[in-house]
Amino acid sequence: MATSQTGPYTTRELSVRTLPDFERFFWQVNGCACALYLFGRHLSPAETLGDQGRRFTGKDWRAGELAAVAKLVREGIAHGILVYADGEPVGWCHFGRADEVPVPRDDSIPQRMFARDPSSDWRITCLLTRIDHRRRGVAGTALAAAVAAIKKRGGGWIEATPAAFPHRDPMLTKLRRAHGWRSPEIAAYLRDHWPTKDIPGIGRVNGCAVTTKTMDHTGMLSMYEKLGFKPTALDEFTGDQRRPWIHVVVRLKV
């Protein structure tokens, strides 16, 4: 199994051999192990662990989703990149064939879970970094390794839907605590103070709210542009109804 070195980090592809590292990483970040993108929705513990009458904890839910994803790894359907620092998994990037995931290909899966462009061959859907390694280039390393892995598999058109640009606003957090998320005060603040940016050929987009602990898991547009991705459209399926058009569709052919 290939291991790549990029600066202080090494990367390895998701496989049966790296599955223990994958599971350890997602227990640390309390994530869904990309079950959302692999299955087109979150899975309930009852679906994955049985016993419909039992009450399940959040730990049960994560264990069930991890088990379901592990099965796809063994079947060769789940793909991704793990980023390591000093031998510990600290980052993740999910990618998959547009005609392969989500696994159910029926009307029960929301349209937003499928590729935006019918000519896209691959999708990059999720980037996660362990909180103690954020803003250190982990996500960029994972993204570059994912593009390289796709190229190794024959390449084609890659699609992703990153947020346009980040915006950190401590005042918004304070106002939400004081007035509530959907209050008139919040609506007025967003209308009068939220930043926007014009992307040539696409239009005006809004910033994506981030804090020191949270970041949009699709990544930011600038990360993709460094690798040659080009914005092609606004993403009508993602974003907050109070701040629409915070994501864009980007594509790259490799």
From TrEMBL:
It comes from the Bacteria. PROSITE patterns: GNAT. It holds the Pfam family Acetyltransf_1. Keywords: Transferase. Residues 41-254 form the N-acetyltransferase domain. InterPro entries: Acyl_CoA_acyltransferase, GNAT_dom. GO terms for molecular function: acyltransferase activity, transferring groups other than amino-acyl groups. This is GNAT superfamily N-acetyltransferase. It comes from Microlunatus parietis.
